[in-house]
Inverse folding.
């Protein structure tokens, strides 16, 4: 069963050739950096306490096109005083055709954030350094494991049918 792409992003043979995954565009959707205690926080002595929160939003923007937004929020405090908060929403438009509902959900929950994460990681690192703080490199994230956890949570909440195409997920890392 071949589908024709009316958006112009593929060919009429895409369905016959199998599934198609393309990265159409990567962009920063929103960026924020706050250092509420500066400049006094630069003189604080103590071990920084870091907290990272990940979120993901997926929105259908065309027949076979999805915007995926990977949100990364990194908070740092020293001696219970806020040092900085860096927030990045790294986005991309992905072409996905020829996937069944489950395959589409897996791609949106694993491959799309995997493609966006290096860009978000770089943006967070540059924000922290530009804010006058020691460089911070976010460690790699296993989005397949996070996706599996999301599936377990959906099953326990009885919302197994809710796909990422219309959902937002969040978690601490």
């Amino acid at each position: 069963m071949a589908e024709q792409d009316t958006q112009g992003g593929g060919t009429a043979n895409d369905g016959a050739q199998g599934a198609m995954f393309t990265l159409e565009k990567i962009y920063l959707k929103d960026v924020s950096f706050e250092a509420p205690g500066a400049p006094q926080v630069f003189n604080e002595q103590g071990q920084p306490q870091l907290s990272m929160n990940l979120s993901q939003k997926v929105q259908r923007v065309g027949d076979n096109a999805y915007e995926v937004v990977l949100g990364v929020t990194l908070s740092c405090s020293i001696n219970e005083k806020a040092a900085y908060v860096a927030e990045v929403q790294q986005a991309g438009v992905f072409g996905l055709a020829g996937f069944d509902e489950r395959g589409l959900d897996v791609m949106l929950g694993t491959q799309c954030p995997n493609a966006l994460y290096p860009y978000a990681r770089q943006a967070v690192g540059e924000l922290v350094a530009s804010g006058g703080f020691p460089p911070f490199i976010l460690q790699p994230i296993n989005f397949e494991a996070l996706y599996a956890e999301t599936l377990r949570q959906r099953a326990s909440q009885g919302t197994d049918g809710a796909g990422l195409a219309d959902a937002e997920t969040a978690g601490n890392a």
Notes: The longest helix spans residues 101-130. The radius of gyration is 19 Å.
